[in-house]
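go over this record:
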Amino acid sequence: MAVVDPTMDFERELHDSGAGWVVGCDEVGRGAIAGPVAVGMSAVLAGFSPLPAGLRDSKMLSEKKREELYPQALEWCSVSAVGLAGPEEVDEIGIIAALGLAGRRALVSLHEAGVEILRSVVVLDGNHDYLTPALTSAPTVVTRIKADRDCGSVAAASVIAKVHRDRLMIAHHDDHPGYGWAANKGYGSTTHYEALHELGPSPLHRLTWLH
């Protein structure tokens, strides 16, 4: 299957239609059994720079390549943010509401960094808008299937969120060394489930996901 490089065509259309800011948005960690869910956002103004060479959806990149592209993605976008919702919040309110909570936290960070949220259009990867129900005053949210593959701002958000969350899980590896988080990042690998059977859950596990 041919590799598709993202473009900024859709973002350019949104700017031309009046959007002050275009905010690419992608989530990471939805399917993990331990650790937070993360929502990354990459905000760009019109007149953006060319995309970093090799930037793609984080799932299409090796861990080494993501680490190489991470600082480039941060530098490329005007402002970026990652919002988190912890495992206890996932357990308490469910994964979809937790995604909304993490997204709201990311938007607050963008706002504090100077992004005019109500003049923004958020390009949300997928076909389900989990963001708007979590907000009291919402920007325009456009869902787009395969936006992480096709839209440069969303690809940047996916890399930023993925590296941010991976680094958090690697940092927790030494706190709870039996689960192999440096390798599996909290996802349910065979060795992770074996460690759960032997050690039981840690404070970072999503307990409702283990039943």
Observations:
- The radius of gyration is 17 Å.
